Amino acid sequence: MNQPIAINFPDNIKLTIKREDLLHPHISGNKFRKLKYNILEAQKQGRSAILTFGGAFSNHIAATAAAGKEYGFATTGVIRGEELVDKIGDNPTLSFARDCGMVLKFVSRDVYRNKTEAVFIENLKAEFGDFYLVPEGGTNALAVKGCEEILTPEDAVFTHVACAVGTGGTISGIIKSAKLHQRVLGFPALKGAGLLDDICKFAPESNWELVEDYHFGGYGKVNEELVLFINDFLDKTGIPLDPVYTGKLFFGVIDLIYKGYFPQGSDILLIHTGGLQGIAGMNRELLRKKLPIIKIRDNV
Ligand SMILES: *Cc1c(COP(=O)(O)O)cnc(C)c1O
Fold first, then answer.
1. From the alpha carbon of 275, which atom of ligand 1 is closest?
2. End-to-end CA distance of the chain, in Å?
3. What domains can you pick out in the chain, each with its CATH number?
4. Closest ligand 1 atom, CA of 168?
5. Which coenzymes or cofactors are required (predicted)?
6. What residues does ligand 1 touch, defined as CB less than 6 Å away?
7. β-bridge mates for residue 163, sequence order
8. Full-model pTM
9. Mean pLDDT score of the chain, rounded to an integer?
C-alpha cells in the first residue's frame, strides 16, 4: 500500500511511503519478502526445520520465528552473545522468538564469526539435525527474488526509490525491479560495511547509489535527535518508524530534501521495511541512558 505524505516540502517535492510494515503483524516488511521463497524452497525440499543467525534485537530472528510457527517449521536461532543466555526474559525480541517456539543457541562473538564456515554448519547439523539454512539477515538469491516484488508496475511513476540497507538483499531486489529512469537510493544503517560488492553480486544494474551519511554512528546506534525525529514524524503522519533502519532512512531523505539534493518536482517513494518490533528493546536501552524514548502508536 502506498501512502502519500501531506507535508509541504520545498521545490514541489512529493513523498510517498510504501507501507511494507503492514504486510503481516509479525513477519515484518522486508523480512516477509525475504523469507517467502525460502519457505517455499524448504517445503519443496521436504525440510521440517529452519536454522538462522542473528543479534539480540534482530528483526530477522523475530520474523523467522513467527514464520516457523505460522508455516509449521521447527526453528533454531543462533544468537550472537553468550551473555544473553540467562537474559531472554529481559529481551523482547528473544522472548518473542522463544514464545513462537524457536530454540535459541547462544554463541560468543568469536564463534559467531564462523557462521558461514562449513565445519560450523556441520556441527550445528550434528546438534540440531537436518535443517534448511537461512543466512544472517536472510539474504540469499531467493530473498532477492522476493524483494523484487516490493515494487509494482504502478510504482514506475516515481523518480526516486529510497530504502534502508543492512546486508543489501532488499535494495538488490528493488534495483532489479526498478525502471531505468528511476534512481534507487540506499541508506546503510551501519558504518563502512563494504556493501557495494554484495549488492553488485545480486544486482549488476547501475541506476543506484548508497548514501552513507545517515548511519548515526553505526548499527543500532541512536541519538536524541533521531528519537525526537521519529516521534515528530509519528505525530505529523501517524506512521511509526523503527530506530535501526527506517528512522535513519526517513531522517536522511528529509534532510537531503531540505539541503537541495533532489531536483525540483522529484516524486520520491520511501520503502517502509518494518522493524517496529525493535522499538521495545531500544526503549529499554534509552531509558537506561536517560534519553527520551520512542513513542509507540497506542500511547499517542
Ligand atoms: C533487515 C532490515 C533492513 C535491511 O535489509 P537488508 O536486506 O539486510 O539490506 C531494512 N529495514 C528493516 C526494517 C529491516 O528489518
1. 13
2. 23
3. 2-24+146-288 (3.40.50.1100), 29-138 (3.40.50.1100)
4. 9
5. pyridoxal 5'-phosphate
6. 29-31, 59-60, 137, 139, 164-171, 242, 245-246, 273-275
7. 186
8. 0.95
9. 94
